[in-house]
Amino acid sequence: MHSTMSLLRALVGTLRSARHAPRPAAGFVPDDDVLLDAPDERLAPALVAAALGDPEPAAKLLATTRGAGEWEDRDRYVTRLATFAYHRGDWLTRWAAATPRDPDALLVTAQLAVRRAWESPARAERLRELAPLIQEIAREAPQDPVPWRLALDHARGAHAGHAVFESLWEQAVRRSPHHYGCHVAALKYLSAQWYGSHRAAFDFAEQAADDAARGSLVGALPVRAAYDGLRVPPGPDGSVPAARVDRAVARALALSAEFPPGDPWPAEVRNLLAYVLVELGRREEAWEEFGRIGPYATSFPWGAARGAAPQDPLLGFLAARDRVRGKPARRTPLSGTGRGRAGRGGPGGH
């Protein structure tokens, strides 16, 4: 009961913040004002209700995104709701039991199942067992690209060959040519860590960014390729040329500048850009980007594993921010210190 009430207080605190807090100006945001993976004002009420076991607001939210063709929002909400259900799934079980053929309940259930399979020691086998469910959901989505994004993620973990992956990609872009989540899924498949190379990933990312509409987050896809290039050892095609990394950073900086400081929509792209700038030692630009981020820290990339264990994403964010403004590095975890506002470490990242 105590844990449930703590979770509820955290979600309500984040909801109030999202509704009433003014947009922060560029510049320093105190540590206690930083939120990790803060839900937006549409998702927060659905998470509050889910914490109380009520799936109806989540069902209405996803039905609205499906009906209005809000595919980017829909993708984020499906992922966040599945992350919430990973820790507290009674509301999703109740929703799926009440409406077993509801496409939104099926999609969240499938997203959760794929996540659990990815974490299994027998990942490929577990993912292959989910193939009929993924295929069914995708086939029944005549316009929605989100099931196809999930199918792309599933195929990568199930060791699907290039022909299979390309066929899924064709179906995804037929529904939404510039869907950010589908492009990220394809970039991961093409990365040196999986079935491609640094060169292949950059070629794909740069072409996608060239074709993207102004203001689309796909325009920052090359900086994601740069992130992989900084973390994954060189493959047969060698290291990532510095010129390509510089161009990727320039694209992402230009895209970030198109949004107001403290805007939650590009938060993950801005966090990723700040991470890359820190890794490159471009401290002044990184500090400016942290100013644009405002209070919106994201689990990716700060929670990505280094070595055997994942990192504390909030600690990683704050420590990197300290580094670029010349403060001593943080060496102790933040849990139990009382730092931070309600909502921090909430229901998972995108």
TrEMBL record:
Residues 325-350 are annotated as: Disordered. Residues 337-350 have a biased composition (Gly residues). This is DUF4034 domain-containing protein.
